[in-house]
Amino acid sequence: MSTPRTPAAAPALGHSLKHLAIHLVTPLLMCLGMALAYQGAFHQPEPNHLKVAVVGTGPQAEGLAQAIQTKAGDALDVRTVGDRAAAEQLLRDRDLVGAFVPDIKSPELIVAKGNSDTSVVAATAVFTNVTDRQGVPLHVTDLTTPAKGDPTGQGLFFLLVALSIGSYASVAVIGAAGAGLSMRIRALVGVAVSLVVGVIGIVTAGPVFHVVDRDYAAIWALGWLYSAGIVLVGIGLHSFLKKWTTLALMVLFVMLNFTSSGGIYRPELQNGFFGTLHGFWTGAGFLEGARSILYFDGGAGLGGHVATLVVWLLLGGAALVAAVMYEGRGRRPVETPEEAEEEMEETVAV
Question: What is the pTM of this model?
């Protein structure tokens, strides 16, 4: 026996569907953003001003370099380097991806895989074509020594992912569950959480999986700077964006961050948009800083990468100041328990 419909049934159904549709906006926007960001950044990796060199002086070396440049066009930036020592220094400074040493019997490509394994693969393909025409094999020499648990050098990228998720997921909890606390207390909690996130990152990447096999304190300090920047930016934004904070942090610290970090492809294998972001985005600051420490003895632009992380930390401080001023005018958003629970569930699901 069926239950007769009441006049209120249709309006109740309409209200429920509207409520459901509103809540579906966030995951659908996340889906769209992730599709655009990841496919835009990774769908067609190809050399884009990949910096390589031919080692040698005189017409023969210059002629080979010019021939490779002419054929490659904008895909490569080819130069000549006077001798092997100068080429190795340029590789250690991360100013080159590969340096080709011509030889009739045993041509050699000098690389630094710690800079980027995928970029080295691209450079190797270029000079393998050269040696194939000579009918001799190409010998590849790597100046860097990968960590035992990270033979491709990409394990640092997954450390970046772990630090990022731990950081931005904590923001929703601090903003929602800690809504009754002052901004000062929320900020202090955020700093403490970022310290813990950094410890979790270095313990798992170090003793557990050996992605990091030395310089633990330095990598942890970079991880803390990186995490603290995300957390403080997020806490500040939460006062303004409320339940939309998770989506905003996904855009800033996942969609644009992972794709521009250089973890999968560095700028020389990406289009101009993500290559430009790589120069100042926070994920690139952490990842390239960690590479400089682990594989290039703390050189190769480490100071600039640390400066990038400090700037993002200062942006977090500015966001907190703006939030304090906003809340001081009585505009602090008050979430219902249901809204706070929904926000935390969305963050955990992501």
Answer: 0.88
